[in-house]
Write a structure and sequence with these properties.
The complex is a heterodimer of chains A (294) and B (247).
Chain A (H helix, E strand, L loop, with lengths): L2 H33 L6 H18 L4 H24 L7 H22 L16 E3 L2 E3 L1 H23 L1 H11 L1 H6 L4 H27 L5 H15 L6 H20 L5 H15 L14
Antiparallel strand pairs in A: 1-2
Helix pairs in contact in A: 1-5, 1-8, 1-9, 1-10, 2-3, 2-4, 2-8, 2-9, 3-8, 5-6, 5-8, 6-8, 9-10, 9-11, 10-11
Chain B lengths: L1 E10 L2 E11 L4 E6 L5 H9 L6 E6 L2 E2 L5 H7 L1 E4 L11 H8 L1 H5 L4 H14 L1 H5 L10 H13 L5 E5 L7 H18 L2 E6 L2 H7 L2 E6 L2 E7 H6 L1 H8 L3 H5 L2
Parallel strand pairs in B: 3-8, 3-9, 6-7, 7-8
Antiparallel strand pairs in B: 1-2, 1-4, 4-5, 9-10
Helix pairs in contact in B: 3-7
Classes of the chains: A mainly alpha (294), B alpha/beta (247).
């Protein structure tokens, strides 16, 4: 294969993994903006998406199209319960304690999943045919298009929610000024709950659409979660376009690094970027220092 | 309309309000004056449910509201314009005003009515209309204060609590804002509780006033009487100081 074709190949597959990172990253940002905490259980919602879909298909024999929404619903329910049981009772706790609680929650969810299901890696069937499509010498699986398409729709919905609905605006208001938000009658706790619900829904859907490509198991959430976190950091914890770009940059660099250098460095690349951003531009690639988050 | 009876409020271990009693009749403008730390802001936050009272009675239209959450208080018709404006800085003027009507959106009030109220606020503060698509944080202090008042009005309050609306503003802007407060009372019958450092301007606008010191009401009376009161003059108006001291 020529270098040009190869690069296109890496670019395309990088974009679709990047899209997944973006969705997970937006989940991190939404919760961070509403509560000031980094929810390290975010990756587990991603894992639950894939594993629950698989479970519903195999155990309840549901078709894929029915299993997906049900799995998202169940994972969202887990997110809701997580906020109710682990975050809300401790609202007076410092953000750092809450962050540690989310790490605990993540270990718990992962452990239970391992007990309920198993330690094996499973594949989810692709959403449509497995026949690769040739584009200018690069082979692309239809699943890549599903990923990109669904991501675009989700990001559009997300954007619409935050800039055109009163609940979305109220959530933003809570992140800018919780005190004033309370005084206009916004129930800040309700917004925190909503942030967990949205993040869990987006995360689980990301986990479902990527599972046909990368397989799924009880512990995929760890790595995907960290990559999503990395995307959010590049995007300056924005719940909008900067984090999407962060995810895409990360996905493409990873894919280029893995292809051109060695696939052994794939994960290292993400973490080198994470550290560089934290050292050099902690406000994110596009943020001005001390600027407002959207 | 509003009555506080022997209200006690604590900030942690600090006894911030000590047996505070005060009342407002419908359509009145009442001002709270006093030095920093006298408990003026705490009174407003106790009424708003942000720092709930530990003891005493808090009645609004004869209903006990002491234990209610801030959103319930807003729903009943009490809105606060907090100290330092506290607008949602990255959001536009329009969005800030919409959020003022948050509970009305949730209660499925007709959108047309909410929009009509927004237009009325633009009539009250024409400068906000010119800037409706501008981020609130980029406006001047006076404009942000107008926005904060507009945002509170979007909830259609019967009682408006204002915490130092004149803070850091040019005298002309303060005049403009106080004129609007007067209009709100005269034209719409909004009852107003005004906390001010600028005691003179506040007493000129108000019908009655309360003077607070270290969490206690030490003086109350008609505004024009307080303006003439020697103690008030000395401590809060900075007038005739020499006269009093040398007496």
């Amino acid at each position: 294969m020529e270098l040009g074709n190869q690069l296109l190949q890496y670019l395309l597959s990088g974009l679709s993994t990047g899209a997944i990172y973006a969705l997970i990253g937006i989940g991190f940002s939404i919760i961070y903006n509403a509560t000031g905490i980094i929810n390290f259980a975010q990756g587990e919602f991603v894992m639950l998406g894939g594993m629950l879909t698989l479970f519903l298909m195999e155990t309840l024999k549901l078709p894929l199209w029915a299993a997906i929404p049900l799995a998202v619903l169940l994972a969202t329910l887990v997110g809701l319960l997580f906020e109710r049981l682990a975050i809300r009772p401790l609202r007076k706790a410092s953000p750092i304690s809450l962050v540690i609680i989310t790490i605990g929650g993540s270990i718990l969810i992962r452990g239970l999943s391992m007990l309920i299901w198993d330690k094996d890696t499973h594949a989810l069937p692709p959403f449509s045919s497995e026949e690769p499509i040739m584009i200018a010498g690069a082979t692309v699986l239809p699943q890549h298009f599903w990923i990109l398409g669904i991501t675009v729709v989700l990001i559009g919905l997300n954007k619409w929610f935050f800039s055109h609905t009163i609940s979305g605006k109220a959530m933003r208001a809570c992140s800018y000024n919780p005190r004033a938000a309370g005084l206009v009658g916004i129930d800040v706790r309700r917004m925190v709950l909503l942030s967990f619900v949205i993040s869990a829904a987006m995360g689980s859907l990301a986990g479902i659409i990527v599972a046909p490509l990368t397989m799924t198991s009880y512990d995929v959430g760890v790595m995907l979660g960290l990559k999503g976190f990395c995307a959010a950091i590049i995007g300056g914890m924005s719940s909008g376009i900067p984090t999407v770009i962060g995810g895409l940059i990360l996905g493409v660099l990873e894919s280029l690094g893995a292809g051109l250098i060695s696939s052994g460095y794939k994960d290292a690349i993400a973490f080198v970027i994470l550290l560089l951003i934290l050292f050099i531009r902690p406000q994110g690639l596009f943020g001005k220092p001390e600027s407002e988050r959207v | 309309m509003l009555r506080l009876k022997n209200i006690n409020t604590y900030y942690g271990k600090v006894h911030a309000l000590k047996n505070v009693s005060l009342h407002l009749a419908e359509g009145e403008i009442v001002t709270l004056i006093g030095a920093n730390g006298a408990g003026k802001t705490t009174i407003l936050n106790t009424i708003s449910g942000v720092t709930p009272a530990n003891g005493g009675d808090l009645l609004f239209q004869k209903e006990e509201i002491k234990a209610l959450a801030p959103d319930r208080i807003v729903k009943l018709g009490i809105s606060q314009v907090p100290e330092g404006r506290q607008v949602f800085k990255p959001m536009t003027v329009d969005e800030n005003l919409e959020l003022g009507a948050y509970l009305r959106y949730r209660a499925r009030d007709p959108k047309a009515e909410i929009l009509k109220d927004k237009e009325e606020i633009f009539q009250l503060f024409p400068r906000l209309e010119e800037r409706r698509k501008q981020a609130a944080g980029t406006m001047s202090g006076g404009e942000q204060q107008m926005l904060a008042i507009g945002r509170a009005l979007m909830a259609r309050p019967k009682l408006l609590l204002l915490d130092e609306p004149s803070m850091g503003l040019a005298p002309l802007v303060v005049q403009e804002i106080f004129r609007v407060l007067q209009r709100l009372r005269d034209e719409r019958g909004v009852t107003i509780l005004l906390v001010e450092q600028n005691a003179k301007a506040a007493l000129k606008l108000a019908d009655r006033g309360y003077v607070l010191e270290t969490g206690k009401v030490i003086l109350e009376g008609a505004a024009d009487e307080l303006l003439e009161n020697a103690e008030v003059k000395r401590a809060y108006l900075g007038k005739d100081k020499k006269e009093i001291w040398e007496r």
